[in-house]
Design brief:
The protein is an alpha+beta fold and 388 residues long. The chain has 12 helices and 15 strands. The chain is globular and about 75 Å long.
């Protein structure tokens, strides 16, 4: 049959394979422009702290340092979702996790920029941190909220949806199974760390090369952050050395190098270290789940009550969408005639969680599948037959 086709069934070479295996593919970190400066970020050493004072005079005086930037230089906020535009290019009033960028340096090389960070003095007022779901669900009782726009205290988003008569569904069940599951969460680990080069030209046009999965979202975010017409901004997304969802947000380092290019009149580049990639994060949410499912003796589901609590980290990212997604697939995979879903995403003082390969859905999938195995064992039904 393969002889009838030119492509299907034929071992054709991938169009990009030769450049990749010979090392000729140009990634964002490979971009080099004339007179290019290098950027490094000074990050918070506290999970939750108000920024009282920044003194960068010693760093600015170092030979080779061309500019030092703070959050006051670029205060406009941004975010991937309009409902959660809570991120800053650099922390303005307070830091919300260990690693939150506070200041940025542009210098003639990476070594000089790195050295200059040691000469920047930041005075913090340390605030009470929130380090997990249980803490995030508690009333503030005088403690300062991580953000001031949450649905309730440190609860970023509350969701409640119900379909059908849940009480009647459970009344029809021969067996009711109740469980609590916790998914620890995890993060991406692409071979290529995030990198960005920005060039603000004398004609007022901004060109940005970035290891991003979503150049159009970055384009929109930058237009808002810089109050620039979108037609004056060009985003170039070179081949990406792995992303898996972790490069789908607009990031503060992208905004920072663009602003530093405007301040210096020269191209500016940043390449995150592996440690900094973990600060950028946007990995899979840790989720605490309570699942109650009613079934007939033949294994058919009569009702399900599903509750999820998400650890969102310090910023919104895709979190509102992820919250809904933790309840979206239960009724897609199996026939669930009556269903109730409640969820809460809490802010915590950790790097923000977001999208990672089907964000919000692997966690409840794990919980429901484990519970169905338990139900199958109690009903003495083959787990595959129960699912079918």
């Amino acid at each position: 049959m393969s002889e009838k086709f030119n492509i299907i069934g034929k071992p054709n070479r991938k169009v990009d394979v030769m450049n990749k295996v010979t090392g000729q593919t140009v990634y964002a970190g490979d971009v080099v422009l004339p007179r290019m400066l290098h950027c490094k970020l000074l990050r918070s050493i506290h999970p939750h702290a108000r920024i009282k004072f920044i003194d960068a005079s010693e760093a600015e005086a170092l030979p080779g340092v061309m500019a030092v930037m703070t959050g006051r230089d670029l205060p406009n906020k941004f975010g991937i979702l309009p409902i959660s535009e809570d991120e800053e290019s650099l922390a303005v009033e307070k830091a919300r996790y260990v690693g939150d960028p506070v200041t940025a340096v542009a210098a003639v090389d990476e070594e000089t920029a790195e050295a200059a960070l040691k000469y920047i003095h930041v005075e913090y007022e340390v605030l009470e941190p929130v380090m997990g779901i249980e803490e995030g669900l508690k009333p503030l009782n005088g403690d300062e909220a991580i953000h001031n726009y949450a649905d309730q205290d440190n609860i970023h988003k509350l969701v409640s949806l119900e379909f059908g008569d849940l009480d009647d569904g459970f009344a029809q069940a021969d067996l009711i199974q109740e469980d609590v599951f916790f998914y620890q969460g995890n993060t991406h680990l692409p071979m290529e760390e995030h990198a960005t080069v920005a060039h603000y030209e004398p004609n007022g046009k901004l060109t940005v090369w970035s290891s991003t999965q979503t150049p159009h979202y970055l384009h929109k975010a930058m237009a808002g952050v810089f109050d620039m017409p979108p037609s004056r901004i060009r985003i170039i997304a070179p081949p990406t050395g792995g992303g898996f969802g972790g490069k789908t947000d607009p990031f503060n380092h992208e905004m920072v190098v663009a602003k530093l290019s405007m301040m210096t009149g020269r191209p500016v580049k940043i390449a995150l270290t592996r440690e900094e990639v973990f600060y950028a994060h946007r990995g899979r949410h840790p989720v605490l789940m309570k699942v109650k499912t009613g079934v007939k003796n033949d294994g058919s589901i009569t009702a399900m009550d599903f509750t999820s609590f998400l650890d969102g980290g310090g910023y919104g990212s895709y979190g509102v969408a992820s919250t809904y997604y933790t309840g979206a697939l239960q009724t897609v995979t199996y026939n669930v005639p009556t269903y109730k879903f409640q969820a809460a995403r809490v802010f915590t003082n950790k790097p923000a969680c977001g999208p990672k390969r089907g964000h919000g859905t692997p966690q409840p999938r794990f919980a429901v599948e484990v519970q169905l195995d338990k139900i199958a064992e109690k009903l003495n039904i083959n787990p595959l037959d129960l699912r079918l």
